[in-house]
Amino acid sequence: MQSPIRKKLLEAFRQANGEFLSGQALADIVGCSRTAVWKHIEDLRKEGFKLDAIRKKGYRILHTPDRVSQNEIHLGLNTKSLGQTIYYEETVPSTQKLAHQYAQNGAPEGTLVIADEQTEGRGRLMRNWHSSKRTGIWMSLILKPQLPPQRAPQFTLIAAVAVVQAIEEVWDLHPEIKWPNDILLNGKKVTGILTELQAESDKINSIIIGMGTNVNQTIEDFPQELHSIATSLAIEKGQMIPRSRLVQKILEKLELYYEIYMKEGFSPIKLLWEGYAISIGKEITARTITGEIKGKALGINDDGVLRIQDHSGHIHEVYSADIEVNEPIQ
């Protein structure tokens, strides 16, 4: 976890918006000596921050490194709770496993667990997720809504809307959502979302939302078997992208829609989700553990369940499946 002084220091630079802050002003803001401020400034430099220091004017940040540690995320983060507590590791087996441990040990709502690399990353149905070092965003977020457990699956859909809008707004790319948990760009997967639960029979203790996004990979960074189905933001945009900025925007969007959901219910989120979904109104094949269902995707219900109308007119409610989009319905 980041020190409180470092967090206050970065918040002061964020609010200064590129203007100089004197050593004394920083010392007053963070509540320490000017010598201590100077030591923290030097530590930031060692981490890759570029700071301007001019006598009688003070300090300002010129450049932040492309890292996803507490310092880079907190500098520019505009949330009330999500991401205010961050646990960063360079390499972990799985941020999801680590977040479960923190949640069980009383971590506050909004705690983010993030890493530069996962060695045992996984997606839905225990599938492996390729999580290469310093190229993507591998993170898990802890939420603690006062809700019954049956409403937990909706949080996958809330997170999907947040991720899509974050990518849209910051980089002018146009992702789509593939039910239940994939974000696609030009038909290839760029983000996967995994929502897991710690709960009792009548209440949620914690929801752990794992989000893995391919950001700065080149095609050579993916195993050969993924070349036809995976992509990254950098591949699609044609340039490298600062990962911490995307983390910030996802957290900001997710906090917004989480608040809307808790006040107004799922209906506003449902409309947004369906607007980004690739399958709505199209002919799809849904492969479940009991067989295949072919038909027209009608949308989702208020529980996030996919509704499919087969060729005989019967409507199926699908809770879990792999879907393939076929030709559009004419």
UniProtKB/TrEMBL annotation:
<comment type="function">
    <text>Acts both as a biotin--[acetyl-CoA-carboxylase] ligase and a repressor.</text>
</comment>
<dbReference type="Pfam" id="PF03099">
    <property type="entry name" value="BPL_LplA_LipB"/>
</dbReference>
<feature type="binding site">
    <location>
        <position position="118"/>
    </location>
    <ligand>
        <name>biotin</name>
    </ligand>
</feature>
<dbReference type="InterPro" id="IPR045864">
    <property type="entry name" value="aa-tRNA-synth_II/BPL/LPL"/>
</dbReference>
<dbReference type="InterPro" id="IPR004143">
    <property type="entry name" value="BPL_LPL_catalytic"/>
</dbReference>
<keyword id="KW-0067">ATP-binding</keyword>
<dbReference type="GO" id="GO:0004077">
    <property type="term" value="F:biotin--[biotin carboxyl-carrier protein] ligase activity"/>
</dbReference>
<feature type="domain" description="BPL/LPL catalytic">
    <location>
        <begin position="71"/>
        <end position="262"/>
    </location>
</feature>
<keyword id="KW-0805">Transcription regulation</keyword>
<dbReference type="Pfam" id="PF02237">
    <property type="entry name" value="BPL_C"/>
</dbReference>
<protein>
    <recommendedName>
        <fullName>Bifunctional ligase/repressor BirA</fullName>
        <ecNumber>6.3.4.15</ecNumber>
    </recommendedName>
</protein>
<keyword id="KW-0804">Transcription</keyword>
<feature type="binding site">
    <location>
        <begin position="122"/>
        <end position="124"/>
    </location>
    <ligand>
        <name>biotin</name>
    </ligand>
</feature>
<keyword id="KW-0238">DNA-binding</keyword>
<comment type="similarity">
    <text>Belongs to the biotin--protein ligase family.</text>
</comment>
<keyword id="KW-0678">Repressor</keyword>
<feature type="DNA-binding region" description="H-T-H motif">
    <location>
        <begin position="23"/>
        <end position="42"/>
    </location>
</feature>
<dbReference type="InterPro" id="IPR036390">
    <property type="entry name" value="WH_DNA-bd_sf"/>
</dbReference>
<keyword id="KW-0092">Biotin</keyword>
<keyword id="KW-0436">Ligase</keyword>
<dbReference type="InterPro" id="IPR013196">
    <property type="entry name" value="HTH_11"/>
</dbReference>
<dbReference type="InterPro" id="IPR008988">
    <property type="entry name" value="Transcriptional_repressor_C"/>
</dbReference>
<dbReference type="Pfam" id="PF08279">
    <property type="entry name" value="HTH_11"/>
</dbReference>
<dbReference type="InterPro" id="IPR003142">
    <property type="entry name" value="BPL_C"/>
</dbReference>
<dbReference type="InterPro" id="IPR030855">
    <property type="entry name" value="Bifunct_BirA"/>
</dbReference>
<feature type="binding site">
    <location>
        <position position="189"/>
    </location>
    <ligand>
        <name>biotin</name>
    </ligand>
</feature>
<dbReference type="InterPro" id="IPR004408">
    <property type="entry name" value="Biotin_CoA_COase_ligase"/>
</dbReference>
<dbReference type="InterPro" id="IPR036388">
    <property type="entry name" value="WH-like_DNA-bd_sf"/>
</dbReference>
<keyword id="KW-0547">Nucleotide-binding</keyword>
